[in-house]
Amino acid sequence: MPDAMPDITHTQRYDRPTIALHWATAFLVLFQFALGESWGWVSFRRVTPC
Fold this sequence. Notes:
By secondary structure, the chain is mainly α. The protein has helices at 16-38, 41-45.
């Protein structure tokens, strides 16, 4: 009877650069979302010359 959980060997795990790139991408996606949501705040604070 085969095991329900396969044996995870060292070769099947992600290496450190791959994990770092994953988290860097996740951070950049969140940063771009926050930047896009807050981009209009600066224009509301400007005083238009009369």
